[in-house]
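anyone seen this seq b4? input:
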Amino acid sequence: MNLKKLLTWAGVALLLFLLITQPVGAANMVTNILNSLREAAEALITFVRSLF
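predicted toks r here
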């Protein structure tokens, strides 16, 4: 088993563990990530609009 496959499975196992043991915390983390991506997209749109 190569290292990449091992690390991938370890990451999946950790993610599942966190989802099962702390579902509210995991949901908050996903919400925070999505909010950050939305804010970044809005900032990029504002920048592009200011160029034109």
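DSSP finds two helices and no strands in the chain. Residues 20-52 form one domain. kinda curious what u guys think
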